[in-house]
Amino acid sequence: MRKMYLLGIAISLSSPSGWAQTPPSALPPKDVFVADLLKQMTVDEKIGQLRLISIAPDMPRELIRKEIAAGRIGGTFNSISRAENRPMQDAAMRSRLKIPMFFAYDVIHGHRTIFPISLALASSWDMDAIALSGRVSAKEASADSIDLTFAPMVDIARDPRWGRTSEGFGEDTYLVSRIAKVMVDAYQGTSPALPGNIMASVKHFALYGAVEGGRDYNTVDMSLTRMYQDYLPPYRAAIDAGAGGVMVALNSINGIPATSNMWLMQDLLRKDWGFKGVAISDHGAIIELIKHGVAKDNREAAKLAIKAGIDMSMNDKAYGEELPGLLKSGEVPQSDVDNAVREVLGAKYDMGLFADPYVRIGKAEDDPAELTGESRLHRAEARDVARRSLVLLKNQAQTLPLNKQAHIALVGPLAKAPIDMMGSWAANGQPAQSVTVFDGLRSALGEQGQLTYARGANITDDQKVVDYLNFLNFDAPEVTNDTRPAQVMIDEAVKAAKQADVVVAVVGESRGMSHESSSRTELDIPASQRALIDALKTTGKPLVLVLMNGRPLTIDTQQQQADAVLETWFSGTEGGNAIADVLFGDYNPSGKLPITFPRSVGQIPTYYNHLSIGRPFTPGKPGNYTSQYFDAPNTPLYPFGYGLSYTNFSLSDVKLSSKTLAPGATLTASVTLKNTGQRDGETVVQLYLRDVAASMSRPVKSLKNFEKVMLKAGEQKEVQFILSEDDLKFYNADLKYVAEPGEFDVQIGLDSENVQQNSFQLL
Ligand code: BGC
């Protein structure tokens, strides 16, 4: 066997990769290894490493492999199997320095098995369930040779007009930060170098969820205190958890695009937060600096981005074409490019690719016989996580759970919607493998009861909207309308309803309505479906609304018409089974809203933790000259943290171990939670704090802790939360993270509105 020495490491040339047989421990430490490699690289090879290329199905593979072998591509995304990626890695192993490629993908809420959308995962408030979804996703993606995911997406969203609200974990800084860490840990495991784990690249840095008016890609203008207090902590939490990558946002921040923002990328991310990983631009974001109006051409755009510290250019033209000239002219110093290359190589080292470029690709003989095979799915996990994410919003007169002996009329355009069930960003999810609500009810009933189905309405009859939703899907349009007249469909549904004991209407949005580039000015259920609900109401039959949607909708009228409302979001491959579990009471719902439901678009923003103001609106005592709308109620339709169960819970008063808290000490707040109903069930006990008088106006309440508690019928439990000075800290006007002495209210409840209160003094 011939051996050569490269970078001081013995490499077996008989292996396909050269490095493939080098165990990780044999590599020198990362800094030494990367510095050595960097010294050997030509300028072109360096620039090549900064290019992340999207692999479309129709791209000429031969050409891509040539480019890779010439050292002109650092990584790809959207190629999603070992068989596809192996030849590309082989090409990299033919390149002069054999620097491995990495393969990335948007694994957002599942890879082959699709879990509920992120907003739904957050609704579970169940960190174990959320972690399980991340672990399964990492395992499945890794088994398909994916090294890095563009996730978690932790943009705080307080304006549900924004379609990407569905992709994040809601409106609350604390909850989203907790989940950010859980997700990074789940993806990366003990190390992103190991097979079965993948590297996390947190996005979209920063503040993308605050785009003006909820219009995607728009401007963000925000005070520094709000940024530090409310919007930045989730990214920070992901980075502190060790996320290897950061994806940079498409928006500008106070006039400066994130992609060219020196303060954001250098001062905050690198210097203050000490981020050591790779910073990746969003898709085409570098040349978008021209349209942002901060660069006159591609050359200037590339210069601004590399100077800001964008290491990799996604779907690159700018870096490949412009950096050679910029380096030659001295406009960009070599050190800027070297810094970027160092981060890319460092990330590859951390992904375990220098130790074994085939760590996730494996051997051809071990490739799965059938990529989309049933045996590759994790259905039990998906079903369990999905049912934990469902939120019961209304249940009048115990309409739910349904009786399995009943005659059920199942209606609505989303009752048999396998594509929509997966939600947007469904990675490799196969519609044919997703369980619809119809499938779920059918299999739960078996031989019992009776199930009659009628579509009842199209998702929307607005052809312009249908065309928009199908814009990118020419081959197989996602939204296909039934061509029968609307009234014919409604009549059929009404007939089915009249013959049934109970009506279950599955209504809401198609998945494309809650997606990137899917902002809405209205958040109503589309008109065609509202007409269906109106007609069903006239039958007088008990009406259960099963909502499928990726953002809060304005459903005040429909929730009044309904006897029960179950929010199911888009619940993934096993959604239909999970929904059936809850509808029939085989699982007692325990989800809580991670985002406020407004009554109308005019109320937006409606987030619960707004700052105290001088003339607050006081429910129950409305008066002139207080902050309110006079033409509609001021409270939200459903508050943050809200969700019912089939049992009832009561909470005692809040007991505090002391009325004072000294710096460095702790204080215990406790309540007794009792299951006062007839069924075992779980709920989320939520602790909120209010800083009564501080150097700045502080939120009326902020979530600081929570615990999901399971209690048998009749059982009670004392739930304790330990508070320390850290829980009281905030960013003051000088951006110092401080706790100020004075009074604090402790509010504990089963949602953010109905709370028990006590107070203490920070000394
Ligand atoms: C999105 C990112 C995504 C990227 C790659 C962009 O359009 O904004 O969130 O990771 O595409 O698919």
TrEMBL record:
One of its GO terms (molecular function) is beta-glucosidase activity. One of its GO terms (cellular component) is periplasmic space. Keywords: Glycosidase, Hydrolase, Periplasm, Signal. PANTHER family: LYSOSOMAL BETA GLUCOSIDASE, PERIPLASMIC BETA-GLUCOSIDASE-RELATED. The keyword Hydrolase applies. This is Periplasmic beta-glucosidase. Residues 1-20 form the signal peptide. It catalyses: Hydrolysis of terminal, non-reducing beta-D-glucosyl residues with release of beta-D-glucose. It is an enzyme of class 3 (hydrolase). It comes from the Bacteria. The gene is bglX. It is found in: Periplasm. Transmembrane segments: none annotated. The keyword Hydrolase applies. The lineage of its organism: Bacteria, Pseudomonadati, Pseudomonadota, Gammaproteobacteria, Pseudomonadales. Residues 683-752 form the Fibronectin type III-like domain. Its EC number is 3.2.1.21. GO terms for biological process: glucan catabolic process. Belongs to the glycosyl hydrolase 3 family. It comes from Pseudomonas helleri.
